[in-house]
Write a structure and sequence with these properties.
2 copies of one chain form a homodimer.
Chain A lengths: L1 E2 L7 E2 L6 H4 L9 E22 L6 E8 L2 H5 L16 E6 L4 E4 L4 E12 L4 E12 L14 H17 L14 E2 H12 L5 H13 L10 E3 L5 E2 L5 H18 L2 H18 L28 H21 L3 H22 E2 L4 E4 L4 E2 L1 H9 L5 H12 L10 H13 L3 H17 L35 H6 L4
Antiparallel strand pairs in A: 1-2, 3-6, 3-7, 3-8, 4-5, 4-7, 9-10, 10-11, 12-13, 13-14
Helix pairs in contact in A: 3-13, 4-5, 4-6, 5-6, 6-7, 6-8, 7-8, 8-9, 8-10, 10-11, 10-12, 12-13
Chain lengths: 481, 481
């Protein structure tokens, strides 16, 4: 890895040895090397550790660092001062007894690169690595041929599908590097991309049932559930994610025609509306209870009132649609009526018709998030929506998204209000910039203006294969863009 | 662990919590604790890792340090600047996914103490340890009741047998902490103690055959052999160890009456004499070829010419005895004659009759090693031997042993020349001092004048359960002392 200021991630890989050359090299105390597997893998690593020199009279102690991107293996991971657990740093120290020996690393990793530092062998021998293998795992089927009008779009679809592929395990994981966890918000976007690519629809169904099974005692769907060592309630709630459960269920019924599952889970969807209604005023305005997590995006300065209002209206509308699709027309009517009230209340509270912008909070914050969710929530007419989107996107002061997750909804909003060209441009600019930065899979967070930022205080715990960034495949493969 | 200048190893253990109290405690980033298993174990460690707080949203990363003695866990092991591999430092960093989880540490360890440092959990939860178990392994049978005329001698026998017990695995290991390897010199002493305690005679036989099978191309017995991952030649030779193979075989035949094995391995014993004879002058004096390792002891200043002369005569004599016991009387005669010549040559070269001391080298070095091996080699009459031993032991300038291995031969020499009382006193003084220092098992090296010294430059790679120190059981259980 060579420092290179021209690279977004500050390093470029240069080949130090071919595989045949590498297999003849031997390493001792203080030596290190980096292996490049040529693409992202979720899985295991094995190798044969051989010795050169006299009979090995000690174990070999090695440090292995698993990198999704060059900085993971090019820079020291310590000192670490991120906000989340240091246990997420992708490194292992192993001691291999009884050489020569076959080694299979004990955990599952997410990596393209593996850096090996030889802590020690003994003065009498060095080590050689043979049969180094990454054992990739996924529950996705074969990768379909990528689709895209330009080579860049084709590559974008390919990278997006690779991202989804490596996150599809026993559930849709948010990212294989870190949490490896099923979150509602991520699931919705993964499922949308999946319907257009791998079509592992039973995996979506499994995830919907996991959320239905492991909600809180009132029935509020959790933000995430854990699967290992046993499936269980995740203990955390995000208002938008509870609402998006309903949207995800609707999407599933639309994509699969599986009315039966829609009916089976309908009570869960109904219960979300009931529970979320506790925080919605009689005239339809969401009132932040102050003790609940509203996510929308990792952008820390985002004022979320307008966005969550739009998101809830979007979810209510999808729930009414779901009811109609599964033959619950009687229930659909009142939900539609409520959706209308929520749209009107949101419009009254957040739409500045004079300036043509959606604002949020006492400082009248303008953000892409607020505009996009106002559009998606149906708070604005299409011309108003176009105006609001342009007003936000063209305003250099407007708060931008931090995550591909929110970028998805911005693109979805542009499509919704008829700004297809601009939506396509956003794919090329935003996801394209990750391609330009060398992404094999799309990232958890990417702020083009500040590509080395992290919501966790240290980029070495960022996830660089994160499924909520896989939706270019949804837009491209469905012919939307 | 509390620093305590009154302790030989500078720390004393104080109980911080009872087991019931410990099981209610929880630990998070930066916390640490030390478990005391109450005695030395060779084996494995397992525990259940539970969580306290919210649902565990990260792995737990732990550092475990395995200590045979307090300094292993009371002091930092880094920076390490020992001469042997840093991979021997008894520490592991593990990352435990999917909590709660049962953990079984991946390697075999030698320990009484286990220090656990919590590197991180996550801000949301702490960890609790339940069902912590040491799984001890040995091929030795049940421990016989200890024997000794005084409580101190009884305890000495008990600790010596515990030492042997924890080194008896698929072979007689030198020490379970580090090399875990079969060495001839260690084997002889282990076998002697074994005949008087566990009587796992087949294990001795197995080791003799391993040495016979994996010698060099000329047939010289290796100093050590490796068993894992497959049995093989150890690649190192020690002149005294090749000679002691014959002594060990003789001891085995005496202890077991297994004449058949004696006959089967007789060609190997004969071959050692032939090969070693290359470095013995026609009149019987060993001439150091300069390119061969002579061990005798780890004392770095020891001049070894006198000692190796005595040791070789001792081995020749034992080989003649072996020949006679297995019906090879024709071969025994010439070996006896040669033994006599070697004794005379050694006596002429190293016995200073005027001063009554055995000396070695151009500086006429007086050492316990030279005196003891002169006695054991039969270079001196019993009265001369007593004089030589007293001359060395009572001379504060005389070079003392560094290892219990050489102390054994000093005691054996005292017994041989009729100084039983002094031999018993040496047990009490030397091995007794290790008992006073809190030893549960006897150590690889112990210099009473400098108990924190190491042949490797760092006491944290010393072995504190080392089988060559187990011979108090040989002396006590056979009624020799």
């Amino acid at each position: 890895m060579v420092p290179d200021a021209a690279q977004v991630l500050r390093f470029r890989a240069e080949q130090a040895a071919s595989i045949p050359d590498f297999s003849t090299q031997s390493f001792r105390k203080g030596d290190s090397f980096i292996l490049d597997f040529g693409g992202h893998r979720t899985g295991y690593l094995s190798f044969d550790l051989r010795t050169v020199g006299r009979e090995p009279d000690a174990p070999a102690r090695l440090k292995l660092t698993f990198g999704e991107v060059p900085p993971d293996v090019a820079e020291p991971l310590h000192p670490y001062d991120g906000k989340i657990s240091e246990a997420w740093l992708p490194e292992e120290i192993i001691t291999v007894d009884y050489l020569p020996q076959s080694v299979r690393m004990p955990r599952r990793y997410a990596f393209r690169y593996v850096r090996v530092d030889v802590i020690d062998t003994s003065p009498g021998f060095s080590v050689r690595f043979a049969n180094v293998r990454a054992h990739a795992v996924t529950s996705a089927g074969p990768m379909p041929a990528p689709i895209g009008a330009t080579p860049r779009r084709k590559r974008m679809d390919e990278v997006a599908m690779a991202t989804l592929h490596d996150c599809m395990q026993t559930s849709f994981e948010d990212g294989p590097r870190r949490d490896q966890r099923l979150w509602v918000g991520d699931l919705r976007l993964q499922a949308l991309a999946n319907y257009a690519s791998f079509r592992s629809n039973d995996l979506v169904k499994r995830c919907l049932y996991l959320f239905a099974a492991y909600c809180d005692k009132d029935g509020l769907v959790a933000a995430c559930v854990y699967e290992k060592p046993y499936p269980r309630y995740g203990g955390m709630h995000i208002i938008d994610y509870a609402a998006l459960f309903n949207v995800t269920l609707r999407d599933y019924v639309v994509a699969t025609g599986d009315i039966e599952t829609g009916r089976d889970l309908w009570p869960v969807a109904q219960r979300q509306l009931e529970l979320l209604s506790r925080w919605i005023s009689p005239d339809g305005l969401f009132l932040d209870p102050g003790n609940m997590w509203i996510f929308i995006d990792w952008a820390s300065k985002l004022h979320k009132a307008a966005a969550i209002q739009g998101l809830l209206a979007f979810a209510w509308d999808a729930t009414a649609d779901l009811a109609a699709r599964i033959g619950k027309d009687a229930e659909a009517g009142p939900i539609r009526a409520r959706t209308k009230a929520m749209r009107q209340a949101g419009r009254a509270a957040y739409w500045d018709a004079a300036r043509g912008v959606v604002t949020s909070g006492p400082d009248k914050q303008v953000s892409w998030a607020s505009a996009a969710w106002a559009v998606l929530g149906g708070m604005l007419s299409p011309p108003e929506g176009r105006r609001a989107m342009r007003g936000a996107l063209d305003d250099p002061q407007a708060l931008k998204p931090f995550t591909p997750y929110l970028y998805h909804y911005v693109v979805e909003a542009l499509v919704t209000c008829g700004e297809k060209k601009r939506a396509g441009q956003m794919l090329d600019d935003y996801w394209g910039a990750m391609l330009d930065a060398g992404a094999d899979t799309f990232w958890e967070v990417f702020d083009p203006a500040n590509p080395l930022s992290s919501p966790y205080g240290d980029i070495h715990v960022n996830s660089y294969c994160h499924a909520w960034s896989c939706t270019p495949s949804y837009f491209l493969r469905n012919g939307i863009l």
